[in-house]
Design a protein that fits this description.
Layout (H helix, E strand, L loop, with lengths): L7 E5 L3 H12 L3 E5 L5 H19 L10 E4 L2 H5 L4 E4 L5 H14 L5 E4 L6 H4 L9 E6 L8 E6 L5 H13 L3 E4 L9 H17 L5 H9 L2 H5 L4 H8 L4 H19 L7 H15 L4 H22 L4
Parallel strand pairs: 1-2, 1-4, 2-3, 4-5, 5-6, 7-8
Antiparallel strand pairs: 6-7
Length: 314
C-alpha cells in the first residue's frame, strides 16, 4: 500500500476550495476526476480552473500538466472509483461528511487515501462510518490552495500512521508545505491562530478603539509583513538581538501576559456584524473585490517565489 504512486486525484466538491485544489493538482501533472452535485458545477469548475491557470503558469507547471486532464462526473462513485487520492471539500456538517466518506470508502480502490479539507471537524468523527477508517485523514488547505503552500495533516483515532506519512509525502511532493497536527482540536492550528486575531480585531471595533480600515492597516502594514516572512516565534527571536527569544521573554514576558489578560471577548451581535460590514464597505470604496483578489494573488505568488529563492526561510 505504501509503495503505490499517486497519479490520479478525485476532487469531491468543486466550490471555491475544491476548484482551487483541482487547478493545483492539474498544474502538478496529475489526472483529476471531479464531482459536485450542484447545478452548473462543471461549467463553474472549468471556468475557475481557466482563471487560475495563468497564475499557475507563472509559478511553473509540471511536465505533462494540462487542463485537458480534468474529467467531471455526475456520480460520486464514478469520480472516486479509480482514484489514488481523494480531496473532499463538501459542506461543514458532520452528518453529511460521515455519509459522504462512507460512500467513498465503499468504492475507492483499497490503496486510495481519503482526505478531507474540513476547516474544523474532527477526522475521528468523519471516519466513524467507514469500513476502512485507517485511510481517512485530514488535509486542510489554506485558501486559496492553488497558491498558499500550507496544508494541515491530521489523523483520527483510527487513522494509520502509514497513511499520515503517505499524505505528508504526497503533499510535499506536489509543492505544498504540510505540517502534522499531532492532536485533534477545533479549527486545527492556523484557523485557531486566525480566530485569536479576529477576536481582538472585532473587540477593538466594538469598543470604538479604531476603524476597520485602521485595524486592517495595523496588520497589513505592520506585523503582517513580518509574519509573511517568518512565524511568530521566529519573529520574537529576531526581536531579541544577540540574546534571542530568551532575552525577549525575560524582558517582555510580563507585559505580554498583561496584554493577554486585557484582550476582549466580543459577541457576534447583529450590531457588531453591521458595524464591521459597513467598515469593510467604506475601506473597499470603489474598488472591486475581483481586482483585489487579482492583486493579492500576484503579490502572494511573488512573495512565495522570493522566499523559495532565498532558500533560508520556511
Amino acid at each position: 500500500m505504501s509503495g503505490v504512486a499517486i497519479a490520479r486525484v478525485a476532487v469531491v466538491g468543486t466550490g471555491v476550495i475544491g476548484a482551487s485544489w483541482a487547478a493545483w493538482f492539474l498544474a502538478q501533472g496529475l489526472d483529476v476526476d471531479a464531482t459536485d452535485p450542484s447545478p452548473g458545477a462543471e461549467a463553474r469548475l472549468r471556468e475557475a480552473v481557466a482563471q487560475h491557470w495563468p497564475t499557475l503558469e507563472r509559478s511553473g507547471l509540471a511536465e505533462g500538466a494540462s487542463t485537458a486532464r480534468l474529467r467531471f462526473h455526475a456520480s460520486l462513485e464514478d469520480a472516486v472509483r479509480e482514484a489514488d487520492f481523494v480531496q473532499e471539500n463538501g459542506p461543514e456538517r458532520m452528518d453529511f461528511k460521515i455519509e459522504l466518506f462512507r460512500r467513498m470508502d465503499a468504492v475507492a480502490p483499497p490503496h486510495a487515501i481519503l482526505a478531507s479539507s474540513s476547516s474544523g471537524l474532527t477526522v475521528s468523527g468523519i471516519q466513524s462510518g467507514c469500513a476502512h477508517p485507517e485511510r481517512v485523514v485530514l488535509g486542510h488547505p489554506f485558501n486559496p490552495p492553488h497558491l498558499i503552500p500550507l496544508v494541515e495533516v491530521i489523523g483520527g483515532e483510527r487513522t494509520s500512521a502509514d497513511v499520515v506519512e503517505r499524505t505528508m509525502a504526497f503533499y510535499a511532493g506536489i509543492g505544498k508545505r504540510p505540517i502534522h497536527v499531532k492532536r485533534e482540536v477545533k479549527g486545527h492550528i492556523a484557523n485557531r491562530l486566525q480566530a485569536a486575531l479576529w477576536r481582538e480585531a472585532f473587540h477593538l471595533v466594538e469598543q470604538g478603539v479604531a476603524s476597520v480600515a485602521d485595524i486592517d492597516a495595523a496588520i497589513s502594514q505592520g506585523p503582517g509583513l513580518r509574519w509573511a516572512v517568518m512565524g511568530p516565534f521566529m519573529n520574537l527571536h529576531l526581536s531579541g538581538g544577540a540574546g534571542g527569544i530568551a532575552h525577549v521573554l525575560a524582558h517582555l514576558g510580563g507585559p505580554i501576559e498583561d496584554w493577554w489578560h486585557d484582550l476582549g471577548s466580543p459577541s457576534m451581535t447583529p450590531e457588531l456584524r453591521q458595524r464591521v460590514a459597513e467598515g469593510v464597505a467604506a475601506e473597499l470604496g470603489e474598488r472591486r473585490t475581483s481586482e483585489l483578489e487579482r492583486t493579492r494573488d500576484t503579490l502572494l505568488l511573488d512573495l512565495i517565489r522570493a522566499k523559495a529563492a532565498a532558500g533560508t526561510l520556511e
